[in-house]
Design goal:
Layout (H helix, E strand, L loop, with lengths): L1 H6 L1 H15 L4 H22 L20 H17 L2 H30 L1 H7 L5 H7 L6 H6 L2 H29 L3
Helix pairs in contact: 2-5, 3-4, 3-9, 4-5, 4-9
Length: about 180
């Protein structure tokens, strides 16, 4: 069940996205504030993606020094930003539920994979003691945009841009609709 939820998180995200768009009541102010928050979350995701060769290593470089799952932390910050941009408590609830369910499943699934693949090295990393070999290997690692691209982070960036654009269109449409209805 957990593995299935983890695999379905993108599909569920589109379904929740449609519901979010329908419930959203965005304004220019909420879009600006929420987008700034969401961009910070995406920035964390890009930074993390540029330090990780997914499914091939455990790293302690970049944001992995401070967070076990910086990609998911970034996704959560993006969710907060989209909730703010949407200007709706109901949207905040939908996003919170979606993130709680899907990210919990993804983290459990990913951690099981990492334990099977890397064994003790992953357990040491989680305990905050990655070992001399891991620290030495990561000590000189720099952020790589090519690695972030290889990890397909540009897809999350495009998704964020589309979500913000849809909220802008909804705010514009709602504003024009209500102005026309009021006879202005």
């Amino acid at each position: 069940m957990i593995a299935a939820l983890a695999r379905l998180r993108v599909t569920l995200g589109f379904a929740c996205g449609a519901l979010v768009l329908w419930l959203a009541e965005p304004t220019g102010t909420t879009i600006a504030a929420g987008t700034a928050i969401a961009i910070a979350g995406e920035g964390l995701r890009v930074w993390a993606s540029g330090h990780l060769n997914k499914a091939r290593e455990v790293t302690v470089s970049g944001p992995y020094r401070w967070f076990a799952h910086p990609l998911y932390v970034g996704s959560s910050v993006m969710g907060v930003g989209l909730a703010v941009a949407s200007n709706s408590v109901a949207v905040g609830g939908v996003i919170a539920l979606y993130l709680a369910v899907t990210l919990t499943a993804a983290i459990r699934n990913e951690e099981a994979f990492l334990r099977r693949t890397f064994g003790d090295r992953y357990d040491r990393y989680r305990r905050g003691r990655p070992g001399v070999d891991a620290v030495a290997a990561d000590a000189h690692r720099r952020f790589s945009l090519a690695q972030a691209t290889a990890n397909r982070e540009h897809r999350a960036l495009v998704g964020l841009a589309v979500a913000v654009l849809l909220l802008v269109l909804k705010a514009t449409y709602n504003g024009l609709f209500w102005q026309a209805a009021a006879g202005h």
